[in-house]
Amino acid sequence: MGGGRGSRLYPLTKLRCKPAVPLAGKYRLVDISISNCLNSGYNRIYLLSQFNTASMHRHVQDSYKFDPFGGGFVDILSAEQTEMSSNWYQGTADAVRQNMKHFRANDDDLFVILSGDQLYRMDLRSIVEKHRQSEAEVTISTTLVPKEQAHSFGIMKIRNDFSISEFIEKPQSKQQTDDLVINDHIKQSLSSPSTLGQGEYCLASMGIYVFNASTLKKALESDLADFGKEIIPSMIGKSKMVSYIFEGYWEDIGTIDAFFNANLMLTDTLPKFNFYDSDNVIYTHARYLPASKINNAHINHSIIAEGCIISKATLNRCVISVRSIIRDGSVLENVYMMGGDDLKTLDEKPISKNGRIPEVGIGENCRISNAIIDKNARIGNNVVLSPKGKPDHYEEGAVYVRDGVLIVTKNGIVPDGTVIA
Question: Which among 313, 365, 371, 417 could bridge 406 via Cys, Cβ 3.0 to 4.6 Å?
Answer without folding.
Answer: 371
